[in-house]
Amino acid sequence: MSASKKLVELFYDVVSPYSWIGFEILCRYRNVWNIDVRLRPGFLGGVMQGAENKPPGFVPRKFEYMKKDLHRLGCYFNIPLAQPQNPAEVMFVKGTLQAMRFVTATNILQPELTEVLSRELWMRIWSRDEDITEPASFQAVATAIGLSKDQAIKLIEFSKSQEVKDSLKSTTQEALDNGAFGFPFIIAHVNSKKEVFFGSDRMELLAHCLGEKWLGPLTSNSKSKI
Amino acid sequence: MSASKKLVELFYDVVSPYSWIGFEILCRYRNVWNIDVRLRPGFLGGVMQGAENKPPGFVPRKFEYMKKDLHRLGCYFNIPLAQPQNPAEVMFVKGTLQAMRFVTATNILQPELTEVLSRELWMRIWSRDEDITEPASFQAVATAIGLSKDQAIKLIEFSKSQEVKDSLKSTTQEALDNGAFGFPFIIAHVNSKKEVFFGSDRMELLAHCLGEKWLGPLTSNSKSKI
Lengths: 226, 226
Fold this sequence. Notes:
The structure is a homodimer of 226-residue chains. Helix content of chain A is 51%, strand content 12%. With 226 residues, chain A is of the alpha+beta class. The first copy, chain A, has one domain (6-210): Glutaredoxin (3-Layer(aba) Sandwich), CATH 3.40.30. In chain A, α1 (17-29) links the parallel β1 and β2 (35-41). In chain A, α2 (44-50) packs across α9 (162-177), α5 runs antiparallel to α6 (114-126) and α5 (97-109) packs across α9 (162-177). Chain A is globular, with a radius of gyration of 17 Å. Chain A starts with 5 loop residues before the first strand and ends in a 16-residue tail after the last helix. Mean pLDDT of chain A is 94; it is low at 222-226. The A-B interface holds A 51-53, 59-62, 64-65, 68-69, 72-73, 76, 179-181, 196, 198-199, 201-202, 204-205, 208-209, 214, 216, 222, 226 and B 51-53, 59-62, 64-65, 68-69, 72-73, 76, 179-181, 196, 198-199, 201-202, 204-205, 208-209, 214, 216, 222, 226. Chains A, B: This is Glutathione S-transferase kappa. Chains A, B: It holds the Pfam family DSBA.
């Protein structure tokens, strides 16, 4: 029945905790809705620049609220989100350009690993407050997802190539061309039309648009206190 | 059983279409959840200034997306939202200071009318693209909600008083004091704690926080195409 499955593309960057929420929700609902989820690793910095948008955290009260909001969403959706000690450094000083090139390289050479790799990167910065910019960090990530040292070296080398740089740029541009001004950004292909959704909080509308049903977090842990 | 009802305060301004969505959802769920909804008409301009925040529509792509998003939400929640011809003029040139003073005056003298009055004002600007700044418009609104000409004149006069101006300021300040950076802004009083929510898209989390269940739009019309 694969032919009748609707394609849902998720543009994301591991710098973005809301992207993580959108990613986990779609990974869960892929088994419930009649959809194919296509992971599209992009570069959020490029989207923000292209859209002349600013991160919401630049407004101090919004930043304070986001901490609470992310904590609640993490509990509700059973995603082990935890604020890094210094989110501004993680997001704006260190950034994720190398990390997203690493994801892109993996997505080209071993696309079956894109999901676990992305999750491991999110676990590092948005759960355990670990680095994702140093070569040793990429090695650690590769090991964590079961790659051999040789495979890891090959992917890390490939992630520095022009092909990978161009591929990441092109995915980022594709998001912009479809109206993105931030991540997560979803393109659902419904009746030969593209329906775009911004954020991780339009899943009930996405379900409706796909002719499916929103069933909440799909996890028993969402009963925990938020 | 009224004593055990949890208080949910909704801070809103009729300038904000997302506030309208939050308002209608809470007005519906008030009959389903064990809550008391307290309507808190405020002035969004004052909140944005106090929070040093900018309306999302200032980023052109976000503005384009919001039009689509509001259309979808309107259909899904069965709220007759329609973009005015010139939203920037409605929101930023004409504004809603007088209108929100009118709502505040009503909320002081005839609080049982606050809900229908607010809805009628939203219907005017966010559904039928009608003025809500001229004296004739306030008269028309008053008539639409069943007030006599005398009652209308009394409310319109009272809305110009210092008492009303101060009351609107104080409600706006209360939202700011609780961390608001935009509307709708919700304060749920749960176990002697204030839980705050921004936006109309955290209702499932609000339900969870209240120990209630999110049941979707509670309207049969949400089957329509979005």
